[in-house]
Specification:
The chain is 61% helix and 0% strand. It has helices at residues 12-22, 29-34, 38-48, 52-61, 68-75, 80-86, 88-99, 104-113, 116-119, 127-134, 141-151. The radius of gyration is 17 Å and the shape is globular.
Length: 160
């Protein structure tokens, strides 16, 4: 039996990006933003816990702009679901940093080649945070998997 914890704040950045990406029927992202007043953009950004400038940058980056982050975390043996659950604001800030990164091609290439663990420090804007997360044994993939098996709980993102 799998226990899923419902938390509407949990996927804030992803929800906003998905909402804008899906759009209102045929509307483009820029059409939607143009239809919002400055106050509405500010309010939406505030609801997400980010600045209006960050919101606009995230929308411009698109809904998959931070897809590399969980892959990088897994490459470093960090459990993304555990970090997202325990450290929501850190996770969100990391998503924002990743979404605005200019080293995406290098990151994707190194992840694909299996050498990201050795090279991420040279280009990743989240490198310091990732290293700090790696130092916490409770956030490592083996620790969360073992803990889940022992308690009968399976975190979102952990395999069967």
């Amino acid at each position: 039996m799998t226990l899923t914890i419902a938390d509407p704040v949990r996927h804030t950045v992803q929800q906003v990006l998905s909402w804008f990406a899906q759009g209102f029927e045929q509307a483009t992202q820029s059409d939607m933003l143009a239809g919002l007043s400055d106050a509405e953009v500010e309010a939406l950004a505030d609801d997400c816990g980010i600045s209006a400038h960050q919101l606009l940058a995230l929308v411009k980056a698109g809904p998959h702009a931070a897809d590399e982050m969980p892959a990088m975390m897994r490459a470093l043996n960090i459990d993304p679901a555990e970090v997202e659950y325990r450290m929501r604001r850190v996770f969100r800030d990391m998503q924002i940093t990743c979404a605005q990164c200019s080293s995406k091609d290098t990151c994707r290439q190194h992840l694909q080649q299996g050498k990201a663990e050795q090279t991420f420090i040279d280009y990743c804007g989240n490198a310091d945070t990732l290293n700090a997360l790696r130092a916490n044994p409770d956030l490592l993939i083996e620790a969360s998997t073992f803990r889940d098996r022992a308690s009968g709980f399976r975190s979102p993102g952990n395999g069967p």
